[in-house]
Amino acid sequence: MKLSSDTPPKSFRPKKFKTPDKAISYISEIYQAQVEYLRAQFDAFTRGDLPDVKSPKKMHGYYPYLRIKTEFAKRDDIRRSYGFAPKPGIYSTTLTRPDLYAHYWDEQLTLLLQNHDIPLEVGVSDTPIPVHFALGEDFHPEKNLGVEQIGRVPHYFDVPDLDLMNDEIPNSMHILRQDQELPLALFTAPRADLSLQRLKHYTGTSPLDFQNYVIFTNYQFYIDEFVEIGRRQSGTNGYTDFVMPDAGGRLPQMPAYHLKRDGNEGITMVNIGVGPSNAKTITDHIAVLRPHVWLMLGHCAGLRNSQKLGDYVLAHGYLREDHILDDDLPTSIPIPPLAEVQKSLEEAVARVTGNTGYDLKSIMRTGTVATTDDRNWELHTSDRQNLRLSQSRAIAMDMESGTIAANGFRFRVPYGTLLCVSDKPLHGQLKLPGMANSFYRQQVEQHLQVGLETMEILREAGADKLHSRKLRSFSEVAFR
After folding, report:
1. Which CATH superfamily hosts domain 15-196?
2. Any idea where the domains of the chain sit in the sequence?
3. Could you tell me the fold of the domain covering 205-470?
4. Cα–Cα nearest to 123, from 187, 18, 7, 29
5. For the whole model, what pTM was predicted?
6. Which residues contact 73 (CB under 8 A, 6 or more apart)?
7. Helices 220-233, 433-461: crossing angle, 10 deg rounding
8. What is the Cα–Cα distance from 206 to 210, expressed in whole angstroms?
9. Residues 98-145: pLDDT tens digits?
C-alpha cells in the first residue's frame, strides 16, 4: 500500500460568523480535519508505506485562521485593556488546539463583536502544521521511529520552521510588509504549539492541566507544602482535582503542580529552580496559555540591616542584571508595579500574619529587588556591590524575580513578587546549612499561605479587572 498523498484533507471555504460559538465550532472542525489527515498519513509512513524516496510528495495540513476587518477603532469600555482593534484595518491570526483555547477564544471573540459589530471570518490559512505538533506533546520521534525514518520525515511532512516561531509581535518588533494583515494575537499558532510541546517536556504535566493563576518558586520546600495543601483541598472549596508529575519517573527540570478548578481558574505552582535562564524559559512557554497572573514566591538576600530573617519583600521595582532579556526588552525600559497585584499581595500578608496598617512595616518592606545572574555575587567586594545597590535603593537580591516580572511585562501577563529574607550577606548573616534548614521549616508555610490567599483575592476581584492597561502599547493586538 502506498501513502495516499494525492488525497488532500477535506476542503473548507472561508465563512463569516456573527456569534463566537459558531466561529469556534468551525475553527475546531478545520483544525481536526487537518490534524486527522496528517495523523493518518503519518501512520502510513511509520508502517513503511513509502512513495518513491527520490521524488516524495509532501503531505500538508494547515492551521485555521481568524480574520476581522474594521473601519473604526472603538471600544465600549475604555477601562478594559483588550478586546478591541486599536485602529482601522484588517487583522488576522492562525489558531491551534481548540481543546485548550476554546474558552479563551470565546472571551476574545465576544469582546470583538461587542466593540466592533463586524463578522468573524474563519478559513484555512497557508501556514502548514508541522507534523510533530499534529501528533501531540506525547509523541517522541526518537521513540516512535527508527533513525532512517527520522531522517526521511522532512521529505514527506512539514517540520517546525523557526522563522514562524519568533516573538517579534510581543517584542513590538513586528514589521509589516506591504499589504500584510495586522496581528490579531501575540502568538501565532506555530509559536504556541512549540511552547505547548516544551511545557510537557519541562514540567512533566500536560498544558491542559495548567491553571490561570500561577506561582513560581525557587525552592522545593514550597512545593512540598503545596502538595500537602493540594491533596487536602482537592474536592473541596471549588477545587476539583490535584495533578502532579508522574511519581514513577524522574522529576522533570521544572516540575509543575496543579490545584484545579472549573474553567482553569485554579492555581498552578512550578519549581523553576535557581537562575534567570530557567525563569525566562518557563515564562516564555507558559505565556502562550494566557494566564491571568503569575507571582514569584521565593527567598532573597536582605540588603538592609533593619531587615530580619523571615521578613517579606514586596517588589515595586527591579534592578535587572540578569542579562537574559536584554535583547528582547532593554534594561532602559521600566517594569512598573501593577496596583491590582500589589494591593492584593499586601492585603494577603495582612490577613495571614494579622499585621495591619502601620504594623505591616515591621515585617514587610516595599522597594527595589535586584536580580542578578551571578549566584556568587557575595564574593565581590562591598565597595563594588554597594554602589549600584545604593543608587537603585535595592532592598533585596535574588536571581529570578526581575526576569519573571520583565517577561510578564513583555507578554502582557500581570505579575508580582513577594520574597522572604533568608540571609543578609552584606551584614554578616550568610545562608549556612543549619540556619537555612531551621528557617525554611518555620517560614515556608506562612509564605505560601500568603501566595495562595493573594490568588483567592485576585480571582474574587475578577480577571477582567486584573489585566492592566499598563501592559498594553499604543498599537496593540486585540487578543488578551
Report:
1. AMP nucleoside phosphorylase, N-terminal domain (3.30.1730.10)
2. 15-196, 205-470
3. Rossmann fold (3.40.50)
4. 29
5. 0.93
6. 84, 85, 86, 87, 88
7. 50
8. 7
9. 999 999 999 999 999 999 999 999 999 999 999 999 998 777 665 567
